[in-house]
UniProtKB/TrEMBL annotation:
This is protein-glutamate O-methyltransferase. GO terms for biological process: methylation. PANTHER family: CHEMOTAXIS PROTEIN METHYLTRANSFERASE (PTHR24422), CHEMOTAXIS PROTEIN METHYLTRANSFERASE 1 (PTHR24422:SF21). Signal peptide: none annotated. SMART domains: MeTrc. InterPro entries: Bact_Chemotaxis_MeTrfase, CheR_C, CheR_MeTrfase, CheR_N, CheR_N_sf, SAM-dependent_MTases_sf. Pfam families: CheR (PF01739), CheR_N (PF03705). Keywords: Methyltransferase, S-adenosyl-L-methionine, Transferase. It comes from the Bacteria. It catalyses: L-glutamyl-[protein] + S-adenosyl-L-methionine = [protein]-L-glutamate 5-O-methyl ester + S-adenosyl-L-homocysteine. GO terms for molecular function: protein-glutamate O-methyltransferase activity. Residues 1-251 form the CheR-type methyltransferase domain. Residues 273-298 are annotated as: Disordered.
Length: 298
C-alpha cells in the first residue's frame, strides 16, 4: 500500500522534531524507499503498517530513532569539497596554530559526522602538518544523532568504493592498511577523534570552547527557525577567534546570527562578529576575549 497523505504528514512532523530534517512534499517515493529496510526488520507488510506501529509508541522509543536514522542522508566522502581542506591547510590552520602557540591545544568539532570521513580527513590534515607528533594536544569531537552511523565511524574501516572517494593514493598508502573486510585507518589518525551521539535539536552539552566547527551539508535540510537556533548554539561553543565552515550550498549566516563572512580561497568561512562598542564591560576573561577578537585576522 502506498504511503497515505496522513502517514506522510505524521512522518514529516516526527522527523522535523527529532533531527531537524524537512521532508519536502514531493519526497513520498524517497521516504518509502529509505524506510523499506526498517519495514523488513520489523517484519511488517508496508510503510503504512510501520507508521501505525510508530503511532502506538512514544516518540522517545528506539523505533522512532531508527526511523529518523533511516531517513537521514549520510552521503559523504574523504576530503569532500577539496577547497575547504585547501583553505584549512594553507590559511585557517596556520592562523589557529599561531594563536594557540602558548597552550599548544587545538579543539575541533565536526557536527553530523556520518561515517567518519570528515573528522578523519581533518585528522589526516593535522597529521600532514606534523601536529599529531609534536606535543600538541589535539581533540576532534565528532558527533551525529545516528548511533548506527557512529558505530561504523568508530570502526574506521571502509570498503573499496569509499576508500577511493576523495583519497589520493599517497594518503591511502600512508594512513590505511588493507584487511580482509576493507581498508582500516591507522591508530595515529584515529586517536584524536572522539565520537559521541548528539542531537543538534536537543541543545549542546557543556564543552570547552572549540577553535573550529565544521557544520557542513546539514542545514540545507532544515527550515529557517531550526537553522537560526542551532547557529546560536554553535556560536556559544566557538572561541571568539575561531572559525565556522558550512557546506557550499548552504545559506550564509546573517549578521543577526552573530557571524561575519570571510572569503578564504574559494570558500566562505565565518567568524564570531565583534562585540558592540556600546556593550558594557565584562569580566577580565571576557575583556581578554574581546581584545583577542579585535586583533584577529583571517
Amino acid at each position: 500500500m502506498p504511503l497515505l497523505p496522513e502517514d506522510f504528514s505524521y512522518l514529516r512532523q516526527r522527523v522535523l522534531r527529532r533531527s531537524g530534517l524537512v521532508l519536502e512534499p514531493d519526497t513520498h517515493a524517497l521516504v518509502e524507499t529509505r524506510l523499506m529496510a526498517l519495514v523488513r526488520e520489523e517484519r511488517l507488510p508496508d510503510t503504512s503498517a510501520l507508521v501505525a506501529r510508530l503511532r502506538s509508541q512514544p516518540e522517545s522509543s528506539p523505533l522512532h530513532q531508527r526511523m529518523a536514522e533511516a531517513l537521514a542522508n549520510h552521503e559523504t566522502a574523504f576530503f569532500r569539497d577539496a577547497p575547504v581542506f585547501d583553505a584549512l591547510r594553507t590559511t585557517v590552520l596556520p592562523a589557529l596554530l599561531a594563536r594557540r602557540a602558548r597552550t599548544r591545544t587545538l579543539r575541533i568539532w565536526c557536527a553530523a559526522c556520518a561515517y567518519g570521513q570528515e573528522p578523519y580527513s581533518v585528522a589526516m590534515t593535522l597529521a600532514e602538518a606534523g601536529l599529531l607528533l609534536t606535543g600538541w594536544t589535539v581533540r576532534i569531537l565528532a558527533t551525529d544523532f545516528s548511533t548506527r552511523a557512529l558505530v561504523r565511524a568508530s570502526d574506521a574501516c571502509y570498503d573499496a568504493q569509499e576508500i577511493h572517494r576523495g583519497l589520493t593514493p599517497e594518503l591511502r598508502q600512508r594512513y590505511f592498511h588493507q584487511e580482509r573486510d576493507g581498508w582500516r585507518l591507522n591508530e595515529q589518525v584515529r586517536r584524536p577523534v572522539e565520537f559521541r551521539p548528539l542531537n543538534l535539536m536537543a541543545g549542546l552539552p557543556p564543552e570547552a570552547p572549540v577553535d573550529l566547527v565544521l557544520l557542513r551539508n546539514v542545514m540545507i535540510y532544515w527550515d529557517v527557525p531550526t537553522r537560526r537556533a542551532v547557529l546560536a548554539r554553535v556560536r556559544r561553543m566557538l572561541h571568539v577567534d575561531g572559525y565556522l565552515v558550512l557546506g557550499a550550498a548552504e545559506a550564509s549566516p546573517l549578521v543577526e546570527d552573530g557571524f561575519t563572512r570571510h572569503l578564504i580561497g574559494q570558500t566562505s568561512w565565518y567568524r564570531p562578529a565583534p562585540a558592540s562598542p556600546n556593550a558594557s564591560a565584562g569580566t577580565p576573561l571576557e575583556d581578554a576575549r574581546r581584545a583577542a577578537r579585535s586583533g584577529a585576522t583571517p
